[in-house]
Fold:
Amino acid sequence: MPPGEGLTSESHRRVQSLLAGRPSRGKPNVRTRARTARRSGPIVNIEDYAVIGDTHSVALVGRDGSIDWLCLPRFDSGACFAALLGTPENGRFAVHPVAPARVERRYRGDSLVLETDFHTKDGTARVVDAMPIRGRHPDVVRVVEGVSGAVRMRVELVIRFDYGSVVPWVRKVSGRLLAIAGPDALVLTTPVKTHGEGMKTVAELTVRAGDRVPFVLTWHPSHEPPPPPVDGLRAVDETRSWWHAWAARHRTRGPYRDAVVRSLATLKALTYAPTGGIVAAGTTSLPEQLGGTRNWDYRYCWLRDATFTLYALMHAGYTAEAAAWRDWLLRAVAGDPGKLQTVYGPAGERRLDELSLGWLPGYERSAPVRIGNRASRQLQLDVYGEVLDALHQSRRMGLRSDRAAWAVQRAIGDWLESRWSEPDHGLWEVRGPRRQFVHSKVMAWAGMDRLVKAVEQHGLDGPLDRWRRVRAEIHDEVCRKGYDATLGSFTQSYGVRALDASLLLLPVLGFLPPDDPRIVGTIAAVERELVRDGFVLRYTTGEGENLDGLRDREGAFIACSFWLVDALVLIGRRDEARALFERVLGVANDVGLLSEEYDLNRRRLIGNFPQAFSHVAVINAAASLAEHERAAGPHRSTT
Structure:
């Protein structure tokens, strides 16, 4: 093939929107549907991606066989493949047939080993993708298998370090391809002969039934020699076995078992193994509105997720992971409580300066592309309550703790006691003026409530009477200032009539009993004002400047939709809760993954992907449904 000559226009088109093949509403997404592998420019729908990972980082693999996003060596490192936020010239690793193909894909059982079948007129080829559980160096293993006939395959490797901006120096070393730039190096090991073509590394091969041809890409620091070659075929089998052994520990039963286990595996993939920190998503800057500016870096750990995540892991039987997350939490928040951040790096890093990468046009021209997150500097009172709740719940659920954990709780409680009445930026990290958010006040109440219960239920030492007084003071103020009798509902903040999906958490937190008329009225108001086509918006957004200081609209927030499931279960509307759960679960892609939001107009997933908060919500909502079938209490009960 002459330099610069590519594939046919048909074979270069990516898979188009999944809308035509979307599952019928009301049924969980458990299908694997065949489609034609085609390109439509450089853009792939978010739901066209699957994820592989090694509990240090993740790669996004498109239905067309292209890895378009990979950061090494960590989740928050610079990307060596950034086509997701730009074009193929910003880096990718594509393996696909030369001829047009119909595509089917699935994970191997409960593992994170991905299989993609390409059915062509000449036969069927399979690409198996995995990231082996990390040793010293990260590997990406791709194995091209022949299933039937004879299929001509093309490989195109475009390495661009530092988020698509740096072209490496590439040479052959001992029969392997070595790419180096700055601190990074990647080495490709394969029996297939490759050659350079227009600043890319390419190859073509024909596979027949029974063939298994590996491609192993390994990162290492550029000042060190390349590590020894990895046996790609063996690595895939070992990776599958590792994930199956891990998944076998779960305690999930019932009709949603597959969705819950896939969510648990996704949560594990988003865990930074050395510390136990769990990042919110594997990507940055996937937009909440296509073409808009709501593009944030989610490759960090949010304190707001603490208790939700803890419950998801503990109820599924993953005590070690829950303990690691709890311990990460303790290390991250250690120090001056007044300097508690909302978000930290995977190892607890505090400096997350936000930058824009002007050379990347963004996913579907959604600019700017950001790295870092300025929300780390905001005041969010709710995270203080979240930390206190998480540490109390971990003790209540049987995770052993020491004096240091209680000392941290007391220090945070002392700070919260003196500052709870201040306005803040709230759960949604608004970038406008601070407000008196009801959710923030309720979380402050929850923090004081958990301190009281730690003394009452576990015999720990603390100023019980004083904490009880503060708890009562917060509760009284929220009921007076945060409830609108004319609406029959709590409101987003004091003195406004706007609603917020976070109000659905009031009964889950135990602020008021589920059958309290104010709770029932709040749930009804959220259903009336914030539910669109069965999905829940965080809050209303309009054409002018919104709560968060931006003018863009956004999609339905997937986790909030599952919060409504929890709330409906608690007030006894279980059939409706189950129907809603299945409806929302139905927008997961063909391999069971969810992003942050759902675009109700385009019927597409939007936002960073895969989203830990969405998958945690799947696990907890399924647990709520299962527990109430056994007449058990709510999953976040503290009584």
In short: Confidence is low (pLDDT under 50) at residues 1-42, 630-634. The first strand starts at residue 35 and ends at 37.
